[in-house]
Specification:
Rossmann fold; alpha/beta; eight-stranded mixed beta sheet; 8 strands
Length: about 325
């Protein structure tokens, strides 16, 4: 199946990404090796905040750890909060993967950021990750006053697996009468375990987070339940029969990546249910393009567009 060609301006970034991040093919036998590769690429918090007016701290409640990030100085009062869930296919990564975004938002807008550490598959299959992420959201809402957070301006955000978990947490909050979220940012979300879309077949054997990686991750998370009617929408939000009553969604994805079609379909279903969704499909863009090739025109456009939505939704 012929793939959508990549934007020439980001092809060098894709090659660099594949060399650094996906140098070892992701299989059930190489998950630990890939975790080590991920870990080596993520700077420490001390490195990330060095010389910048940022306060951060780890908070542990039971076995669940979150990192809280805010601007240094006096604690905020009624600040918006961004609850971030990291990517990595639900089998890789830590709460520090992608935390630069929370640092940047804290410095520019005075937001309070919280990044949650959730249990990874296959050691901890579904529902471990989703329940950890929901528990972290409940903690944030319950401690909003002490954190200087406006409980009416909490947004859940994630990229890739984090985007899938952000969608799951939004469904859980709706179904369980949980915190009222002001929005859900779903970056290239991993939301359909079936892996049968046209775009998943277009990127089979090449590209960033290809069909093989996706199969490996979903198998690890769901085991024998994968592809059956036993799969919960809290594991794969595309399985949700009802997507009404959800917080406004920002859904973005590359036109040249595995998750394109499931992201577009999810946005369409939200609209059909009378909900709000803002969908952006970036031409010629691969999975994670904005981070891998930040100076390309398409990347700068995507970064500015997300920033616009965050400012509107959070009242920044």
């Amino acid at each position: 199946m012929k793939p959508v060609p990549y934007d020439p301006e980001i092809e060098e970034g894709l090659a660099r990404f594949l060399e650094l991040v996906e140098s070892v093919p992701l299989t059930a036998d190489t998950i630990q090796q890939n975790r080590e590769i991920f870990a080596a690429l993520v700077p420490s918090m001390d490195e990330l905040v060095a010389g910048r007016p940022v306060h951060w701290e780890d908070v542990r409640v039971g076995d669940l750890v979150r990192t809280v990030v805010r601007r240094a100085g006096e604690p905020p009062v009624a600040a918006p909060a961004v609850y971030q869930i990291h990517g990595g296919g639900m089998i890789l990564g830590t709460r520090f993967y992608g935390i630069e975004e929370l640092i940047d938002l804290a410095l520019r807008y005075g937001t309070v950021g919280v990044s949650v550490e959730y249990r990874l598959a296959p050691e901890h299959p579904h529902p471990a990750a989703a329940e950890d992420c929901y528990a972290g959201l409940l903690w944030l809402a319950e401690h909003a006053a002490g954190l200087g957070v406006d409980p009416g301006r909490i947004l859940v955000s994630g990229f890739s697996a984090g985007g899938g978990l952000a969608a799951a947490v939004s469904l859980m909050a709706r179904d369980r009468g949980g915190p009222a979220l002001v929005g859900q940012r779903l970056g290239a979300p991993m939301i359909d375990d079936r892996n049968t879309t046209v775009s998943s077949r277009q990127y089979d054997g090449f590209g960033a987070w290809d069909r093989n990686n996706n199969d490996t991750a979903w198998d690890a998370l769901l085991g024998a339940d994968r592809g059956t009617e036993r799969v919960s929408p809290y594991a794969a939000p595309s399985r949700a029969l009802d997507v009404s009553g959800l917080p406004p969604a920002y859904i973005e994805v590359g036109a040249a990546e595995t998750f394109r079609d499931e992201a577009v379909e999810y946005a369409g279903r939200i609209w059909a249910a009378g909900g709000q969704a803002e969908l952006h499909v970036w031409g010629g863009a691969f999975h994670g393009f904005a981070g891998a090739a930040p100076h390309a025109e398409v990347s700068r456009s995507s970064i500015a567009t997300l920033d616009s939505w965050l400012r509107r939704v959070l009242g920044l």
